[in-house]
Amino acid sequence: MNNNQQLEDRLPLRNILECLFFVASEPLSIKQLADLSEYSEAEVQQAVQELAADYQDRGFQLRQIAGGWQFMTGENYAPLIERLYRPKFHQLSLPAMETLAIIAYRQPITRAEISEIRQVDADSVIATLLDKRLICEVGRLDVPGRPILYGTSEQFLNFFGINSLEDLPPMENGDSIENIANSAEPSEH
Length: 189
Description:
Arc Repressor Mutant, subunit A, elongated
């Protein structure tokens, strides 16, 4: 089969992308989509932008999140979805949200620094956040004992429906980690 015949026999790009987004459990990058679809990155980028515009006013949207693209339900529909599926991540406890806020705003950070800020032992909360893959080990501090440094993960970005840490609300002078933790809500998708 010659190249022209192969091009004519390819499936429509928009349909391919919709199928991939529909079955993907995590955001897909333009490069991944180009590799999977065998279309160029420029063609994929244009088709993704068109799809995002097409899905903008529907029950679910195509949104850029965590460095890739993913179908997500509209925020207005969260109560309906919550009735159907209680979140697969159980709501995080207040200590978990506080610890997550500390890590998000102060990363990289050690377990001891987290415990010092919270003024309680953070071991079990850190273990829970690691199990949920909301945080990860990002290195070791170059001091005796070489304590582990923690930071947020891509799953954190996905869980809160943000594309990067720059999308976090800014901490203002009067804000405390506790206030930010109380106001944070996971994204419903």
